[in-house]
Design a protein that fits this description.
- The chain contains 13 helices and 26 strands.
- The protein has 550 residues and is of the alpha+beta class.
- Among the domains are: 132 residues, FAD/NAD(P)-binding domain (3-Layer(bba) Sandwich), CATH 3.50.50.60; 45 residues, no CATH class; 115 residues, no CATH class.
- Strands 1, 2, 7, 8, 9, 10 and 26 form a 7-stranded mixed beta sheet that branches.
- A hairpin with a 2-residue loop joins strand 3 and strand 4.
- Helix 3 packs across helix 5 and helix 8 packs across helix 9.
- The protein is globular and about 70 Å long.
Length: 550
């Protein structure tokens, strides 16, 4: 039964792919660019509202990070998640009610906790933790159920593929030469490529804290929020104590900057690996081509200084698998190696992605083989490997790199920590967030005392769920009247650290499509839509716009 279900899934995927390459029509009410979770939900909502829709995805596999390793959902307060996002997690629950999908582990063995809270909401039949292929299965069923037209492996021509007239996008063209006209466009990419190609104002990096009267933006030297800082002294030089010998790899020679000043640096990326210690489903770690052990010298010295906490974020998901995230001062987060990514060409991004892959594969090989790694760590890591039944057409490696932050639009309303932390009211909510403002480390440098340190890691929790404003996904009217941006939203760096969670992207994707559909009905720019009408429709479709503490 298990094999049959996977075969049916692949047949479903293949049939949609073949159909999607010949969509027939060239004009649509709404064109969604980006196959992320936000993109899928935007397309589904638009169809539900009776609009003709085309989902153009650079990726062959839909769902973004939700189907590419991030199965240990950063959900925050689950009461703030409604609409299609809630339906997605309910469908995940339904998927795992089938006993045949528990092929490696008994359902009763898995347990029910995640993010410190129950992974299952039994009364609402909702599951928040899942395997990558399970998420893709659910996304593909959304596409099939609503007959969404999808073009896969189609990349926007970022140089001359956006036609604008009188402040509106008229059409987009892909690198393969396909051209489509639309009434409203939605940029659901992690990078904001359509937004940028349409000449909408955006920013990259961290604003000075003073720009929006924030406390947690800008350079955060001296801040120690998590276990991701060096708490032991590690010498940064190739020959310990000899500055003239040069710095070890992956340490910046530059000053980190002054506290609270802005910069154009980006928080670290990684891949969320789906690993297993089940021998029947495990592919062992091997030495990657291009491996260079010196790239991990800092980690070797960290272990030598007594650190050994290497397995804290091997978070359990069903069937003896994990969603592996960063943990510690030197981990899967590839600090400082992604600054060029947001604005880079497709070719350069592929290079950056490949470098991140080599770094992470080399990291596990180093921990498995290097003699400076404590015996306990080496003997443990060798028991893990890639899950044989995940990402089967990609060498069991995740399709999507975790682009935690790239471009951010500067739109009608800029969300800041002041809204997230409840200092300022939000007057026109279209959804809610609740996860902590979470920025990963941005840079690794040498302190004045001559030791290695990380900078940029911040974790500050709001006291309760917060509202996200209508204007957060709207470009300024004079820049574009028919574009919505539910992923690279208009927010400060630190506010984005909370907004950037997958459930929120699904929520904002649905709201974006609702705005797009109503603006078509009313023949008005997206910025001019009557909010009371929008609010009524959002609530009708299950969106949570207000948190009532129980």
């Amino acid at each position: 039964m298990r094999k049959l279900k996977l075969m049916l899934m692949m047949m479903l995927y293949s049939s949609i792919s073949i159909f999607a390459q010949d969509v027939g029509q060239k004009e649509f009410d709404i064109i969604v660019y980006g196959g992320t979770s936000a993109g899928v939900m935007a397309a589904v909502q638009a169809v539900k509202m009776g609009k003709s829709v085309l989902l153009v995805s650079p990726d062959k596999h839909l769902g973004g990070l939700s189907s590419s390793g991030l199965g240990y959902t950063d959900s925050g307060k689950k009461e703030a998640i409604g609409g299609l996002a809630r339906e997605f997690y309910q469908n995940i629950y339904n998927y795992y009610q089938d006993s045949t999908v528990w092929n490696w582990q008994k359902k009763s063995e898995y347990g029910t906790r995640g993010e410190g809270k129950p992974a299952v909401d039994g009364d609402k039949r909702t599951l928040w933790i899942f395997e990558p292929h399970a998420a893709e299965y659910v996304f593909e069923n959304f596409i099939k159920k609503y007959n969404v037209k999808v073009l896969r492996d189609e990349w926007l021509d970022r140089k001359k593929g956006v036609e604008k007239k009188e402040g509106k996008i008229i059409s987009i063209k892909t690198l393969s030469g396909k051209k489509f006209k639309g009434k409203v466009f939605i940029d659901a990419t992690y990078e904001g490529d359509l937004m940028a190609a349409a000449n909408v104002t955006y920013t990259v990096g961290r604003e000075p804290a003073a720009q929006y009267n924030e406390q947690w933006n800008g350079v955060q030297t001296g801040i120690d929020h998590h276990d991701h800082q060096f708490r032991v002294k590690v010498d940064p030089y190739r020959i310990p104590g000899d500055k003239s010998s040069g710095l070890l790899p992956r340490i910046s020679p530059e000053s980190p900057g002054k506290r609270l000043e802005g910069d154009k640096k980006v928080q670290a990326y990684n891949f969320r690996l789906c690993l297993t210690n089940n021998d029947k489903n495990r592919i062992p770690f091997t030495k990657p081509e291009g491996y260079d052990s010196t790239q991990y010298e800092v980690l070797g010295r960290l272990f030598a200084a007594g650190w050994s906490d290497a397995f804290q974020k091997f978070d359990k998901i069903p069937n003896y698998k994990t969603d592996v995230n960063n943990h510690g001062p030197f981990s899967s987060d590839n600090i400082g190696m992604n600054y060029d990514y947001p604005n880079a060409s497709y070719e350069k991004r592929k290079e950056i992605k490949k470098e991140h892959e080599l770094y992470q594969k080399g990291l596990y090989y180093f921990m498995m083989t290097d003699k400076r790694v404590p015996d306990m760590v080496r003997s443990s890591i060798v028991k893990w490997g890639y899950a044989k039944d995940e990402f089967t057409d990609n060498g069991n490696w995740p399709y999507q790199m975790y682009v935690r932050e790239a471009r951010r639009m500067v739109g009608v309303f800029v969300m800041t920590e002041n809204e997230v932390l409840g200092r300022n009211p939000v007057l026109h909510p279209i959804g809610m967030g609740s996860y902590g403002m979470d920025s990963h480390n941005v840079q690794r440098y040498v302190t004045e005392e001559g030791f290695v340190q990380n900078e940029g890691d911040v974790g500050v929790n709001p006291s309760q769920p917060y509202q996200i404003d209508f204007g957060t996904i709207l470009p300024k009217k004079e820049e574009c009247k028919n574009l919505l941006v539910p992923v690279c939203v208009s927010s400060s760096h630190i506010a984005y650290g909370s907004i950037r969670m997958e459930p929120v992207f699904m929520i904002l994707g649905q709201s974006a499509a609702t705005i797009a559909s109503l603006s078509i009905d009313r023949k008005t720019p997206v910025q001019n839509l009557n909010y009371d009408e929008l609010k009524k429709k959002l609530i009708e479709d299950g969106q949570v716009l207000e948190y009532i503490k129980k």
